[in-house]
Design a protein that fits this description.
169 residues; 8 helices; globular
Length: 169
Amino acid sequence: MTKGKRVNFRSFKQKVRYNKKSFRSFLTKLGKNVPRNADTLTSLAEKEVWKEVDCLSCANCCKQMSPTYTPADIKRIAAHENMEPEAFKKKWLYKDRTGDWLNKTTPCQFLNLSTNKCRIYAVRPADCIGFPHLSKKKLIDYIHVHKQNLEYCPATYKLVEKMMEIPLV
C-alpha cells in the first residue's frame, strides 16, 4: 500500500457537509441495482484511494468511533495488557443495547493522540484491522457501512467519490 497524502480534516468536513446527501443517495441507488462489475471497480477504486489518503494523518475513526470487540479480541487484548478479560471489560468497555462490546470513551483509549498511532496495533480488534471495509467481501454487503463511515473516514469518502466518477455496468 502506497502511503497517501496527508488529510486536510477541515477540507474533508466541508466536503462531507456539501456532498453527504448526494453520496448517500448514490449508495442507496447502487444498493438497489448493483452492477455486475461493482466489486471489481470497487477494488480498483480502493487502490487509488490509498494513494490519496494517509490514515495516520487523520485517525478520525479512533477519535470519533468505537470498534466492536469480539470475545476473541477481548481475550487477546486483555492478555496483552496483562489483565483478565473481565477486568479489561470493566475498565475499558461497555455492552450496548444490542450486546456488542464497545469503548467506554472516545477517542480510543489505545490511541496516542500526538502520533495517531495505536498502542495495541499488533493485537488490535478485528474491526479495526478491517476498517474502513472498502472492498471487503461484496460491495452490496457493505453499502450501509459506507453510508455510516462516509462522514468519519476520508478513505470511504474518496472511494464513493471515485465510484461516482466511473461507469458502473
